[in-house]
Structures are given as structure tokens and as C-alpha cells.
Design goal:
The structure holds 2 protein chains of 2 kinds. By secondary structure, chain A is α/β, with parallel strands linked by helices. Chain A has 11 helices and 11 strands. The longest helix of chain A is centred in the middle third of the chain and has 21 residues. The chains are: A alpha/beta, B alpha/beta. Bound molecules: flavin-adenine dinucleotide, iron/sulfur cluster and FE2/S2 (inorganic) cluster. Chain B: It comes from Candidatus Desantisbacteria bacterium CG1_02_38_46.
Chain lengths: 353, 276
């Protein structure tokens, strides 16, 4: 992978040129005590962009998969997703890139056709990811064999150094951006061994710290292997009875939850087909004709949530549909923790033997 | 975006036939031709109300029209039942895999239906009968709750007439007023699977009906000696997109809308709780 160095001043110059060309730019900014993706419309905001922070509070999925949108009408009218000239999302973290990969699998490969709304947005968007500068207690990417710095799935990746960035080029779209940078007058230079060393040491330090913090959750069995023997576990009932209040928070904040529901509504003389986010935790999600329900209990639905992410997706795509971002735990009023759940299941199977 | 997979094609309702007090057959004419394979399903839209999956009950060889036999159970189906000829509905599809007809060739084909589950099986049966020389034998076992609940009353007796190639067994769960047609037994559909007189080593069984019927029929067929890979089951799951994306129809790692809706019991037998 090609690596280059760009100074902050030069990069900001490039950003300014993109704004002048009316590209849409989104980047992590600090809003109150949270880090959120915000639209950048003024160069004055450049200084506030956080590249070396941690994952944003909202995940990156809503850029590609809108909470609610009209996807068709009867009679037919020209519904098609808005075409963006160019859109850059910056500061995307490794975990959200993993989640985008899950979406790519589900929306490009799993279905009988590539999902066109997702595809258009994905193709018109440039993703500039960046290494995490620190981690949160809830982060567990390392437990899922990921790293707190992007290794794949980006167009460009930024590793923050003292007064600039190491820029890794990860795709043809990344190459395009490098070319645009050059055209904007920004100077890119070769990465020096000292800069390389700084990047490596930052990455190693944080990875070690994360591994250390997650040591208590380390279990010998892989999560998919555990699921295979956990269908009848009593854990699901415990989560259902004592923790989950069915608020849907986890599923909305989850960067990989990709389910949706279509419904039709009358509007004037049209019947509009609306697509909204949906989630398997909802009682009506799997209900069929006349009220029969294959997952009537909350415990069976919670189990499905875990199994889809950690078993079925692995069987279909050989990867977890979980990024280890820990957002679900942060929002959950019942404090349901994925790491803890697996640790408990592991304990339960050990006791049983 | 070339094609919008959420956009239905408009279709005109031509004819509505009452089958039973809560089941009607609808003949619709899509405004653009839609071709399908028997066993594939469509998403049918009632504009402004909603969309639901149904398998055409007509043969794919009829190109310009499609028939659906639909039981009134809730929101969408209730509205459908109120529609009059001339109404406009929407159709998306076809979705899923059709019945693997080539696997049935040269075999004795047993079709077991319960209630409105006969709808997709009627399409299959009509298709098989169009080329009946390809199959060694075709046998239909159909069970309804009561004589009133038998669908395709006219046709069923018609099918009985093509006796040489089709063996029909009918049964009703109960018949208090003694109204059942000639030759129809009383008892659960599983009773029709007793002494089938089929060469089970060279036979396939295709089952469609309510979950409880599917469960007991499968157990019965296994008991008779059918191998799990020769039992074909139509799995009804909640469906939204039909495209294999929205997640609603998941059954273990499968997406019923694209991997099914027909599965062999071999594919399903190790999945816990498949009958609920
Ligand atoms: C592949 C397939 C083929 C089918 N073929 C036939 C057929 O030929 N004839 C027939 O009578 N029935 C058939 N069904 C069942 C039919 O789809 C349901 O009866 C119908 O969806 C019920 O809709 P409703 O709004 O009237 O019911 P309701 O009970 O009012 O539905 C309530 C809610 O549950 C949801 N729901 C219920 N059932 C389903 C479902 N199956 N898929 C998605 N959402 C659902 C809907 O979101 C709806 O809003 C088939 C089902 C499948 C999966
Ligand atoms: S956030 Fe917690 S309480 Fe809310 S639905 Fe998810 S698991 Fe249940
Ligand atoms: S109905 Fe949407 S995935 Fe099957």
C-alpha cells in the first residue's frame, strides 16, 4: 500500500478547495461531550476536526442507509436516490469500516441484486478513515481480531503525527483523491523512517492497551463456536427477564444492523412505499399470517440478534457482523454487554461439562 | 439506478371467485408481462394498504394472467377480499426458487396440501399435468378443516377425472353435517398418507400447509420411509423485501425469500424450532 506524508496546513488547503468545488464534507467534531459526524461548511471548522479521537457516537451507516425514505410509489413516479457530486466522510474508524464491509456483503452480495439505494450512495462517497488516538472502556475490536487502526476498506487512511498525517492509499478512489490534492496545490512527500516509527509506536501502544483492557473477556472458544452450543442457554432468558426493556436503542446505534421494513401509506393520490430501519428485537418482526410468530418471546429474539451477528453471518460470509465498537452497551438502559454475554455463556458451558 | 426493486408493476384485477367463506381466488393481469416458475412467489400490493407474499396458484404456462388463492387473515388480505374486478393492485417478483422439477422427473410425485396451502401446489400440479408423461405417477393428498373449507371445489373433482395419471385423496378434519364430496374421508391429512402404495425409494413428497400440518406430515412421511432429502417443504416466514436483504424471513442462516421458500427437510432438520 502506498504511503505519503501531508502536513496539516497542506491538507487544510486541499479541504478548502473541495468546499469551493461544492463537495460535501463530513467529519468528526466535538459537540458537547460527544464526538459526532457533522457537515463541514466553513474552513473555520477545519481546526476542530478530530482525526485521532475515537469512534463517533452515531455510526456511519446512516450516510448510506437512511432511517426512513420513500423507495417507490404507485402509480410509478421517478423515485431515485439523490445523486451526490462527491461526498467525503472523514475520520471513520476501523470499527466503522468493518461495519461498512458487513453492509457491502449484505447489500451487494447477500441479496439477489445489489441494493441500488445503498450502492449509489456508497459509490459517490469517499471514505477517509483514521487511526484511533485513544479507546473507550466499551471498545473491544481487538477481541474480534480487529485493530484500533484501519487495515482495509478505506479510500485513504490518516495516521495523525505531530503536525501532519501519514496518508495510506487504499483504493482507486483514494488515488483520485491524491490526484485532487496535488491539483489543489497541496504538497505530499515521502514518509520518513522517523514518521513511520511514530505511526508504528502509536498503533502498538493503543493496541496493547486495548488488549490489556479486554483480557478479562478473553475466552478460548470463538464466538460462532459458542453460539452453536448456546441455543438452549439460560442466558437469553436472563437478558430478557432482567435487562432488556425493548427500547431498540442497540439496534439503532448498531453500525451493522441492516434490517429494514417496507410499508405502504396513502399520500394524496399516491401510495408511497416507505423503507424504515427495523430490528429483530421487535415482537412483530417475524410474525406471520394471523399472528403466529416463530420468535414469540423476547429471549428468542435476543438470541436471534446475537446469532445473526455472531453465527449466521459467519456461516454466510466468514466474518462477524459486529465491529466491537461497543455503542450498544453505551446506549443500553439494561447494560447488556456483548463481551460479558459471551463470557457468561462460556462459563455456563464449562460448568455443564 | 437501472431498476428499482421496490417498485411494483401495476396489475388489473379481472375476476374474483369465492372458494370458501374466507378464501378467494383472484385473477390478475399484470400490465407488463411477468414470467415465473412454479413455486416462486410474488409480492402483491394493495395500494395504500400494504404488500404481502403469495405464490401464484396458476400455471406459469399461462403468460398474460396470474391467479392467487388467498385466505383472509389480516390487514392486507382483508382489503384484498373487498376488491372488485377492475381494481388496480401491484406485483413485484417473482422471488425465490421454483420447485426443482428436473429432480421430480421419472419419479412418483406425492403432493400433500393443507387448507390454503393447496394454492402453490395447484400451480405445481397444473405444471406437472402439462407434461405428465415425465412423471411416473402423481398423487395428491389434500386435507381441509371441513367440507366448506375445501378450495378449488370444481377443479378437485376435475382432477379426480384424470384418474389414470392422477390419484387424489381428500379428507376433512370434521364433517358434522355430512356434506363432504364423494370419496372424501374424515380425519387429519396425515391419515391420507397411510398405505400410499408408492415406490418410496423413487418418490418425492411436496408439502405445503399451516406449520402444524407441515410438522405432522413431515413426521408421518419420515415414518413412511421417505428420506429427508426427498421431502420438500414450503416455509412460510414473514417477508418484506423478497430480495434477500431486509432480514425478515431469516430461518437460521437461510433467507427464505431467496434460498427458499421451498426447502428439503434435509436442509432444515438440524435447525432447532423450525416448526414454530
Ligand atoms: C412464500 C409465501 C407464499 C404465500 N402464499 C400464500 C398463498 O398462496 N395464499 C395465502 O393465502 N397466503 C399465502 N402466504 C401467507 C400470506 O403472505 C399472509 O397470509 C399474509 O402476509 C398476511 O397478510 P395480512 O396483512 O393480511 O395479515 P396480518 O396478520 O394482518 O399481518 C399482520 C402483519 O404481520 C405481517 N405479516 C404477516 N404475515 C406476513 C408474511 N407472511 N410476510 C410478511 N409479513 C407478514 C405484516 O407485516 C402485517 O402487517 C404466503 C406466505 C409466504 C411467505
Ligand atoms: S439497548 Fe438494551 S434494552 Fe434497548 S433493546 Fe437493546 S438490549 Fe434491549
Ligand atoms: S424478505 Fe427481505 S430478506 Fe427475505
Amino acid at each position: 500500500m502506498e504511503s505519503l506524508y501531508i502536513s496539516c496546513v497542506n491538507f487544510n488547503g486541499f479541504l478548502k478547495s473541495t468546499l469551493e468545488k461544492k463537495w460535501e464534507i463530513y467529519a468528526p467534531l466535538k459537540v458537547m461531550d460527544s464526538i459526532r459526524f457533522e457537515k463541514i461548511i466553513d474552513p473555520a471548522a477545519f481546526g476542530g476536526i478530530i482525526f485521532d479521537g475515537v469512534r463517533t457516537d452515531q455510526s456511519v451507516k446512516s450516510f448510506f442507509f437512511h432511517t426512513k425514505e420513500i423507495v417507490a410509489t404507485i402509480p410509478k413516479s421517478s423515485i431515485s436516490p439523490v445523486k451526490f457530486e462527491k461526498r467525503i466522510i472523514m475520520g471513520v474508524k476501523g470499527c466503522d469500516l468493518h461495519a461498512l464491509k458487513v453492509f457491502d456483503k449484505a447489500y451487494y452480495e447477500e441479496g439477489i441484486i445489489p441494493e441500488p439505494f445503498y450502492k449509489e450512495r456508497r459509490e459517490s462517497t469517499y471514505v477517509i478513515s483514521s487511526d484511533c488516538g485513544y479507546s473507550l472502556d466499551s471498545c473491544f475490536c481487538t477481541l474480534l481480531d480487529s485493530k484500533p487502526y484501519p487495515t482495509e476498506g478505506f479510500d485513504l487512511n490518516f495516521s495523525t503525527l505531530k503536525d501532519g498525517f501519514i496518508v495510506e492509499v487504499g483504493s482507486n478512489k483514494g488515488e483520485e483523491l491524491i490526484k485532487e490534492m496535488g491539483e489543489s496545490g497541496a504538497v505530499l512527500s515521502d514518509v520518513t523512517p522517523v514518521q513511520m516509527e511514530e505511526q508504528k509506536s502509536n498503533r502498538d501502544t493503543l493496541t496493547k492497551k486495548l488488549e490489556e483492557a479486554n483480557r478479562e473477556f478473553q475466552i478460548p472458544k470463538k464466538f460462532d463456536e459458542l453460539c452453536k452450543i448456546a441455543f438452549g442457554s439460560k442466558i437469553w432468558k436472563e437478558l430478557a427477564d432482567n435487562k432488556c426493556v425493548q427500547c431498540n436503542g442497540c439496534l439503532h446505534i448498531c453500525p451493522t444492523c441492516y434490517c429494514f421494513l417496507l410499508y405502504d401509506a396513502k399520500k394524496d393520490n399516491l401510495s408511497e412505499r416507505v423503507r424504515i430501519w427495523d430490528a429483530c428485537i421487535n415482537a412483530g418482526y417475524a410474525r406471520v399470517a394471523g399472528g403466529a410468530n416463530p420468535r414469540p418471546t423476547l429471549q428468542s429474539r435476543l438470541r436471534h440478534r446475537f446469532f445473526h451477528k455472531f453465527l449466521y453471518f459467519v456461516q454466510n460470509f466468514n466474518m462477524y457482523a459486529c465491529s466491537g465498537c461497543g455503542r450498544c452497551f453505551k446506549v443500553c438502559p439494561g447494560k447488556i454487554e456483548i463481551r460479558e454475554t459471551f463470557r457468561d455463556i462460556n462459563k455456563e458451558v464449562k460448568v455443564k461439562r | 439506478m437501472k431498476e428499482n426493486p421496490y417498485q411494483p408493476v401495476e396489475a388489473k384485477l379481472l375476476e374474483v371467485t369465492d372458494e370458501t367463506p374466507n378464501i378467494k381466488t383472484f385473477v390478475v393481469k399484470p400490465l407488463e408481462e411477468i414470467s415465473f416458475q412454479t413455486g416462486q412467489f410474488m409480492e402483491l400490493t394493495c395500494p395504500g394498504v400494504g404488500e404481502a407474499p403469495f405464490t401464484p396458484s396458476s400455471s406459469p404456462s399461462v403468460k398474460d394472467k396470474m391467479e392467487f388463492t388467498i385466505m383472509k387473515v389480516g390487514g392486507v388480505t382483508q382489503t384484498l377480499h373487498e376488491l372488485k374486478p377492475g381494481a388496480i393492485v401491484g406485483l413485484r417478483g417473482p422471488f425465490g426458487k421454483g420447485y426443482p422439477l428436473q429432480d421430480f422427473e421419472g419419479k412418483e410425485v406425492l403432493i400433500v396440501g393443507g387448507g390454503v396451502g393447496l394454492a402453490p401446489l395447484r400451480s405445481l400440479l397444473l405444471t406437472l399435468l402439462e407434461e405428465k408423461e415425465k412423471y411416473k405417477k402423481i398423487m395428491l393428498c389434500y386435507g381441509a378443516r371441513s367440507p366448506q373449507d375445501i378450495v378449488y371445489k370444481g377443479c378437485v373433482s376435475g382432477w379426480c377425472e384424470v384418474k389414470s395419471s392422477l390419484d387424489v385423496r381428500l379428507t376433512v378434519d370434521t364433517d358434522e353435517k355430512n356434506e363432504r364430496p364423494k370419496g372424501c374421508g374424515v380425519g387429519l391429512v396425515t391419515t391420507t398418507c397411510d398405505s400410499l402404495g408408492l415406490d418410496l425409494k423413487n418418490s418425492v413428497a411436496i408439502v405445503c400447509g399451516p406449520p402444524i400440518m407441515m410438522k405432522f406430515t413431515t413426521l408421518k412421511l419420515l415414518d413412511c420411509g421417505y428420506a429427508p432429502q426427498n421431502i420438500y417443504l414450503s416455509m412460510e416466514k414473514n417477508m418484506s423485501c423478497g430480495l434477500g436483504i431486509c432480514g425478515h424471513c431469516m430461518l437460521d442462516k437461510y433467507f427464505v425469500c431467496k434460498d427458499g421458500p421451498v426447502f428439503t427437510y434435509e436442509q432444515l432438520k438440524d435447525i432447532p424450532d423450525i416448526w414454530t
